[in-house]
Amino acid sequence: MREMYELAALGRGARRVRRRVAEGEGMATPQRRLEVKVDGRVEILVPGRSRVHPDHPWVKARPDLFRAAWTKDEATRLALEIAGHLATRRAAGAPDRPKTDGRKPLRLPQRRPLRRVLP
User: Fold this and answer.
1) How far is it, in rounded angstroms, from Cα 94 to Cα 30?
2) In principle, which of 15, 25, 49, 76 could form an S-S bond with 68, CB 3.0–4.6 Å?
3) How far apart are CA 106 and CA 112, in angstroms?
4) What is the mean pLDDT of residues 37-59?
């Protein structure tokens, strides 16, 4: 089943975009069979059948165990690649953001409005 969404294109009115929901666009699936314990129950994730959003805590914790559900979905593949990079940085103890040396950010002076001289 394909759903239709209307998006506003830049000054061109609305255009229709097909979402490939049945193919698994925007979703991640495990690379192999996984068993996850949730609230005392065991959830079994099967590759190709089980789908999880890339922002799910399971995917964020171990992005190396997941792949894009739709093979042509470059955005999800890239999101999983970035999540994997961030997970390895966190495991190595690197901070998410670089530390500053205490200096304040550069602020440009505000422009004063031009005065209008009336005749």
Assistant:
1) 27
2) 76
3) 19
4) 92
